[in-house]
Amino acid sequence: MSSPERVAESPRSEGSATVEAITANLGKVVHAREETLRLCVLCLLSEGHLIIEDFPGVGKTMLAKSLAQSVDCSFSRLQFTPDLLPSDVTGVNVYDQRANQFEFRPGPVFANLLLVDEINRASPKTQSALLECMQENQVTTDGTTHGLGRPFMVLATQNPIEYEGTYPLPEAQLDRFAMRLTLGYPALSEEARMLSEQTSDPPLDSLGAVSTAARVIAAIEEAKAIYVEESLHRYVVEILRQTRGDSRLYLGASPRAGIALLRVAKARALSEQRDYVLPEDVQALVEPVLAHRLILAPEARSAGLTQGELVRQAVAATPVPV
Ligand SMILES: Nc1ncnc2c1ncn2[C@@H]1O[C@H](COP(=O)(O)OP(=O)(O)OP(=O)(O)O)[C@@H](O)[C@H]1O
Ligand SMILES: [Mg+2]
Known about the structure:
The chain is an alpha/beta fold and 322 residues long. It has helices at residues 3-9, 14-29, 34-45, 60-70, 86-90, 124-136, 171-174, 188-200, 213-224, 230-245, 255-271, 279-290, 298-302, 307-316; strands at 50-53, 71-72, 75-79, 91-96, 101-106, 113-117, 138-141, 144-147, 153-158, 179-181, 211-212, 249-251, 295-296.
């Protein structure tokens, strides 16, 4: 009966305030659509990892740094290069002569937010060491397991036009990223303002934190508790199945994709101050969450279709639960 009452009872939840505060903070530095910035924050609250893919110089690194700076938690940055070793990411066991034993020196992955610049530049071996950490939230060296911090989010950047000397991530590995975002070029007036800022007083230098790790964790827990009706689970699975049955796709969306989609949908519901997920949450997220996991069939590729377009068609073809 009581959805008006429910709204009246719960003024702005902590979680949705967290999303708004971080989104607004990102907007001070990064000139991009507000929706894109909010998606980054939703990804953080869904405990997902984010890949930002776009042309050089459109603010990918800037966005990742701003997010790290917006939350008062530990941050490290790795520039992926072909000679980077798995242990440069995860850490190493070093021998301590005095104590006569091995001691683990944690690598950069032991941070709450890890910026991995140009993820496609490291060798597959190093990439998979990172992806393993992302999947398992832990590092195992010489039989000992070390848990990673919480929250833990990888913000990876990738440049889609320069392939020489790179190791593009296979789709199986892209599947471990909850979301892929592109930034695009800013509007004319925004870009002009950005030029003026960057050449006088870059706003990133003075960007302060507007949230803490504890608040982010509280919001993550709040999002997890959001109610999802059974018909919505089926709705998500039916969208996934549409992509699997589409002959223009060589690979459709995995069950893991469905989990990511629902997690982010819960975070979106939280940000909109609802305690339940609606089909519109799923529809709004389906492209950034699913598109990068799909592989186009060769004919579809040559016909100029894109993953995003096929995802939108899959949603359009799936009946919405009432
Ligand atoms: N949308 C934007 N908003 C704010 N600053 C921007 C934007 N696009 C570019 N810049 C500015 O341009 C410079 C380059 O941005 P950045 O290093 O983030 O690019 P990038 O996408 O990571 O490029 P690359 O692929 O070469 O690593 C920075 O000084 C940044 O401030
Ligand atoms: Mg960069």
